[in-house]
Amino acid sequence: MYNKIMVAMALDHGVSEQTLTIAKALLNEGGEIVGLHVHEAPEGSVRAYVDEKTIAAGFEKARTDMSAKLAGHPEINGVLVEGHSARAIIDYAASHDVDCIVLGSHKPGLSDYFLGSTSARVVRHAPCAVHVHRSDT
């Protein structure tokens, strides 16, 4: 059982309810669950074609979507950060004394075998325990 669990929440995937349920089952009484979403703003040459107002609107949409997803879970602290998904999850866990990360994973596609999925990177580099929930899709 864990005192501080971070649930990595991809707002465009439907596994958040299952990962939140898993986190609640793994949590010690009096513990804390943090729902973390990493917003990946456009980078590189794409950023040259997107203005700052559009980027800010995307971040605010992510904040709204996260609030909606956590509306039925007032006991979970929602956190929204910007960055690369795997790196931001690992860095947040390391700097906030997270005991366990719970995240969902899809069945890997061909590109995942060459590049690695977010969950695979988190498992390899996280400073704490990681529980991966494999979805059916």
Automatic annotation (TrEMBL):
Domain UspA: 1-132
Pfam families: Usp
InterPro entries named among the record's database cross-references: Rossmann-like_a/b/a_fold (IPR014729), Universal_stress_UspA (IPR006015), UspA (IPR006016)
SUPFAM superfamilies: Adenine nucleotide alpha hydrolases-like (SSF52402)
Highest taxon of source: Bacteria
Family: Belongs to the universal stress protein A family.
Protein name per the record: Universal stress protein
Source organism phylogeny: Bacteria, Pseudomonadati, Pseudomonadota, Alphaproteobacteria, Rhodobacterales
